[in-house]
Amino acid sequence: MQMLNASTTSPLIDATAALETALAQVAQPTAVCEVPIAQALGRVAAQDITAASAMPHFTSSAVDGFALRLAGARPAQRRLPVVATVAAGARDVPSLAPGAAIRIFTGAPLPEGAEAVVPLEDVEEADHEIILQSLPEEGANVRLAGSDQPQGAVLLNRCERIAPHHIGLLAANGVRNVGVFPPPRVAVLSTGDELTTAPLGPGQIYDANRPMLLALARAAGADVLDAGVLPDEQEALAERLAELAGLADLVLTSGGASVGGRDPLRPAFAAAGGTVAAWRVAVKPGKPILLGRIGRAAFTGLPGNPFAAFVGFHLFAAAQIARLSGRTTPPFAAFRGKANFAWKRRPGRQEVFPVRCLGTDETGLPLLERLGNGVSATLFPVSMADGLAVVAADCAEVASGQMVSWQPFSMG
Ligand SMILES: Nc1nc2c(c(=O)[nH]1)N[C@H]1C(S)=C(S)[C@@H](COP(=O)(O)OP(=O)(O)OC[C@H]3O[C@@H](n4cnc5c(N)ncnc54)[C@H](O)[C@@H]3O)O[C@H]1N2
Ligand code: MOO
Predict the structure, then answer these.
(1) What's its top-level EC category (predicted)?
(2) What is the 287 CA–ligand 1 centroid distance (Å)?
(3) Each residue of 263-308: pLDDT tens digit?
């Protein structure tokens, strides 16, 4: 651990090492609570859930049509009497004799003896009989018991974030409750004398970061605590940080983390009992990130520039929230795309930039356009973007057609 010294700067920390440091500040949850599946959306499973029985439970029809018994049907026989009707949910299902048909509906139990179902649009219906165009294959349009999922199949993996389709699958299997980890508590605070909610005065701006970081943390599965805006005043900030550290698993701030004498975050952090694990990371934007702890809470101080705060969240805070939630940490920008731009840059910091997907190349790879031209103080280019792309610290040039790593917004 390095002690704070507001008057000095430290060398930039490599982004991979910074991520390890960020993750080292947070622990996997140990507590587990049981919730009804209707309340499980977005929570993280604390246990594997396996199927108590094979599915479907019984053999049924996959279409509205007519159940046939093929064994007894002569190839020449095209005209069959319809002797009964079986609807979905039917309890008393008659068995099917050779040479007859039973009208059946999608999901209805297949009558004993039936071997195939012919869709109703493939037959001609006359008075209480059907005329077949051809005989179906054995098993046609039949959903065999156990064919979708075996008994014991894993329906939901431990450490997986519960999505709407999991809830449907669990419900289909009769699972009512699921053990989940408690969501982490994330407190979000903005700092800066220039931030206001009132009509803007000279030199004032609205607070963009706090609403954005609260939304990002909530979307990542956290219970958020809106800790408001604090002026650049060390004592008040220290007091608030110490208080928040007692309430949250992770305290996220933005602003005031740079090197200037008016940047009060680091001295306030020290006064609140904070220990710095890393400060100033070789990422662009987002260099003045501070990672550490205050008491039992992890602390991540993001830069004030809104796009830098946005990037810092994606690179570090998102992974921290994932670990605190019990999720396995997904790597950032694991998707491949093709540069539809040429770009020369100064090596030194890993760089994250907004990209728009223009379509795909002949192999299906997304073609990416670089947006924003390196600005860190505005989120405007992100409004036109489909995701974030990243280039390594030593990258001096991206040629058009070169592969780049990126993260679509739809993937987190
Ligand atoms: N001498 C140096 N100056 C700066 C350096 C440096 O290395 N040496 N780094 C620059 C970089 S890179 C960044 S990023 C910024 C970040 O500085 P801070 O984290 O201390 O942030 P502030 O100075 O408080 O604010 C920067 C900028 O962002 C605006 N801001 C702050 N909070 C919000 C908010 N909640 N919503 C919207 N906008 C916000 C603030 O008004 C400033 O314009 O430092 C560079 N300087
Ligand atoms: O790192 Mo700053 O975040 O380049 O704008």
Answers:
(1) transferase
(2) 10
(3) 789 999 999 999 999 999 999 999 999 999 999 999 999 999 999 9
**Whether the Cβ atoms of residue 230 and residue 293 lie closer than 8 Å to each other:** no
254 alpha carbon, closest ligand: 1
Q: Which ligand is nearest to the CA of 204?
A: 1
Would you say 46 and 156 are in contact if contact means Cβ atoms under 8 Å apart? no
Pairing of strands 101-104, 65-68: antiparallel
The CATH number that domain 33-55+149-181 falls under is 3.90.105.10
- Homologous superfamily, domain 335-411: MoeA, C-terminal, domain IV (2.40.340.10)
Which superfamily does 15-31+182-325 belong to? MoaB/Mog-like domain (3.40.980.10)
173-192 pLDDT, tens per residue? Answer: 999 999 999 999 999 999 99
- ipTM associated with this complex: 0.97
Question: How far is ligand 1, taken at its centre, from the CA of residue 305, in Å?
Answer: 5
Q: Are 409 and 387 in contact (CB under 8 A)?
A: yes
Residue 349 CB–ligand 2 contact under 6 Å: no
